[in-house]
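Quick one, T. Sequence first:
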Amino acid sequence: MSNCIESLYKIIENCVLCPQNCKVNRFKNEKGVCKLNHKLKVSSSFLHFGEEAPLVARNGSGTIFFSGCNLKCIFCQNYELSHFNEGVIVSVSELANTMLSLQTSGALNINLVTPTHQVPQIVDAILLAKDRGLIIPIVYNCGGYESLETLKLIDGIIDIYMPDIKYFNDDYAKKFSKAKNYTKIVKAAVKEMHRQVGDLIIDSRGVARRGLLIRHLVLPNNICESKKILDFIAKEISRNTYVNIMDQYRPAYQASQFEELKYPVYLPDYWEIIDYAKNLGLTRGLEKSPVKRKIFF
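Structure tokens:
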């Protein structure tokens, strides 16, 4: 594993850690899209009970929010973290201790939120924590805009991949998240994730142990092309994929400045996506989707 760490740190000397390919030397304080150098920056850590049921169960998910992001979504609900990099610098050893503390508190997993741009330091901390007694699963909670090279280097370290597939429309991905070629990249990344860990395995207690869990936030006006995303999952990944189709979009941060994003999702449009997924056989994760209700005007 030491070779893996060395290879990951080497990447950020001419950073191509993610598909943004900024090619800056982060050890020399040069900064790309994520606006971070080589130092770890963390926003918060706590037992999270608002994640998917298999991640939370009764004990909670040991969630660590990292500062910065390799995407710049103008509708991000955590924009203080992703755009403004709110948080504190921590050492690898301190992050390892945070993971162990969450485990001691009863966490069912270590949930790494937006880890993509800090993978070398995070993996360094994971391996150190494992040497110190960390045994719970590691969750890689990301936006799907991942480098295949980086993913292959962390094969065997991550237990649960949880990408949020945001778009199947490259024009909107570039316009609203500053991500070029998002569709091609996310397809390749999710296929690699599934190759590594397979379908989500949930034990007899209802706790996720290993596998792929896909999120998809439905956006207004079908700008993400949700049905194409679901077709991809069903036909090219697995109909046994655990999928969380989320309905909580709201026009946060700068979204209200754009006509396509200034209003919440129309609920019948959301229900249409749920029905479409179920008709494809994608039922895992949709057992507790919102109940249809009449809308009065």
